[in-house]
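U., I forgot to send this yesterday:
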Amino acid sequence: MSIVLTLSVVLLALVLFVGEWLPVDITAIAIAVLLMLLGLVSPEEGISGFGNSATITVLAMFILSAGIARTGAIQVLSDLLLKWGGKNPTQQILAMGVIVGPISAFINNTAVVAVFLPIVEDWCRKQGISVSKLLLPLSFVTVLSGMITVIGTSTNILASGLSEQLGYGAFGLFQFTTLGLTTFVIGLIYLAFAAPRLLPARKEPAIDGVAQEYGMKDYVSEVVITPRSNLVGQTLRGSGLQRKFDVDVLEIIRNDIHFPQPLADKRLIAGDILLVRGSRGDLLKIKTENGIDILPDVQFGQQSLEEDLSSGEEGVAEVLILSNSDLVGSTLKDLRFRQRYNSTVLAIRRGQELARDRLGKIPLRFGDLLLVQGPKQSFLGLQTNPDLLVMEQQDVETLRRDKAGIAVAIGLGVVVLAAFDWVPILVSALAGVVLMILTGCLKPGELYGAVRWDIIFLLAGLIPLGVAMENSGATQWLANNLVALGGNLSGFWLLMLFYIATSVLTEILSNNAAVVLMIPIAAQVAKTLSLNPLAFIFAVTFAASNSYMTPIGYQTNTMVYGPGGYKFLDFTRVGAPLNLILTVVTPLLITWMYGL
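Result:
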């Protein structure tokens, strides 16, 4: 009965993960609570994920990655990208791989992509390259290089913890580095030669910058307050103009003087020119009701629309919503975005979809790209906000460049201590966190914003599911049935079977969930058939990160989805062959390097 109950909970988890009715971390916690209510795990086992060494190590690595990124240590390498990249797309991807790969082997790949996104965008702009040619390879390169060391991804750390729980020992820091480096090189060569040919130029470098790219002339206009207008003498707040209609007033121009935000209490007079975001339909309604004149596009004069929007202290920027952002799930109206950030959202990009109307009612998602306009000083504040990533290289003032050497030294110290087994990786990582704070690389208040809490809660909620599988005998039962079904298969084909099954599962669930479910079963099958359990554990671990076919399969894929202007199938076009290559190559390499 306990096996039936446990497998029913696993099935429910699959349905909830696929349905995405709740965020994955909330789903994982809900499953842990259900396991406790059903008596499949004790309360202590139900919350054991929060005190698990894998969970705490992942938490510490997020903070260490943030400390290194916050000091600008990674930005130093941007000059190498410009120096080595050249004009050839193959050379550009190879240069990017050589620079980004070693970093992602030791630093969380979402942090690496967050740093390199604006660097690569700026590089593409200078070289006249479509950014869609390089951002998807950037994401894939960080995923591939995350498999070089145990600390490269949270999945590897979780797999190491599960291996230790099952009695096969925790992974050494470089235990599968030879395998990881080999698959990285194979993947990088494929991307360098195939991606430029398979990826279309979704976002050509625009002559008029973001104004042309977002088609702003279709929904940003100048209107003039006529002497007969009932807006004369009123403030914007008092007129209710922005509440009644789907418009935003970006600037007030009076006698060639540009008045920037905030504008709510600015009193309007006849002759004022308002720069507004809004559809022609809304502007015609305002013209009828409030007595304004809509000026033709030529009124922007000799300068471009983007220059008009960026006059004086004003600016235009693209801002990416990060995965751990408090903004996810809320609307701009709920957030009071204009008041909160002193900036106005002009458009929202999601992949190739572009929303320019009714922006206040659109629930925001991770990976959404916001086109914002406001005081340039406000963008400096956005650059330090953990919820958002401004898609331009960070100003030196916002980085602690004088601490870069210290942060790198701390990171190297953590790696060396763990590599020589002088202390466990958990201890060295936590010691590194303390040193990051004591040396000023990170401020105490930045500690919590550096952690991907969704991943931490996901791990904490999933670990009890693995415990329940063991306690109930479900793992043993599934392993026995798999042995019976695959009894005629050789060890290699069984290894291949687990690799494929995990790859499919990681696309449906998440890489961490796939590891929790598959590693105990794979190890048990190997043990029953007197095969090498570590080989099967490695196969599952590598397959769990073999997620390249969709923009939602991996966090870094979602991060580049909007900025690259990609279509959903662009990821499948480039990722499916890569998946196939690694599905054939990785089990062969595991068999050769570690034996069965």
